[in-house]
Amino acid sequence: MREDYEKYMEKAAVLIEALPYIQKFNRKIIVVKYGGSAMVDENLKKSVISDVTLLKLVGFKPIIVHGGGKEISKWVGKVGMEPRFVNGLRVTDEATMEIAEMVLGRVNKSLVTMVQELGVKAVGISGKDGGLLKVHKKYSDGQDIGYVGEIEEVNPKILYDLLEKDFLPIVCPIGLDEHFETYNINADDAACAIARSVKANKLAFLTDIEGVYRDFGDKDSLISEISASEARELISGGTIGGGMLPKLANCIDAIEAGVSRVHIIDGRIPHSVLMEVFSNRGVGTAILGDGEERFYHE
After folding, report:
1. Per residue in 139-155, pLDDT tens?
2. pTM
3. Cα radius of gyration rounded to whole Å, the chain
């Protein structure tokens, strides 16, 4: 009986800890960039979707922006093609673009189904719908990498309309150029651009790393919270490299465009979204505007 009582008290303590965050961000927009291992492992997938659905049910206005790179590569291989990358960007010829749009559409509707199974209304769209994402052709160090788009304009009206009607929008990163050609878009870039356009209070990147380290070789140097100016100093100091460099640069861009807080979260941890958003000390790294209140305390 005593053990049961202690378990209930622990649950109550968790709810009490979450209360100020629920109050602060009630009716605020949060954009979740969904990708990495959390899209491949079925248990992690269910964990992420249940987290985002709970955010919706407690008063947040979530928008999911998803990738699908691993799934695209799998289907490219299935048809006998070899995936090619230049500087980490997928070379997307016409045939690959056709496969990418098919796969991303399939992923999109599977996520819609999972959300609706949990009792929340969801609508899956691509950047083509409602003129959401307008792009131009992207080059990588001057190299032509095919139908890869650089976002030049976001028209968030369709997202505002869906949020107003109490839907959870789920966006796949496909856009159109001025000639209505279809382009694949990096999902991190799409999430960042969408967060800026809707002035989201939070932008969360689900990744396959624990967060941002002051020294990647020292696992005790994980940063729980950092300002945009401090993050800029880390980049200029040369301690940040690899795939984290463009991600952190995206985070700083989002902060400077009006997003209050950006979270880099380890999507391999079940319910990491809830732990990062609703606890005094999350499981990833939060980047915030220089004047924003700090939530975490060492």
Report:
1. 888 889 999 999 999 99
2. 0.88
3. 19
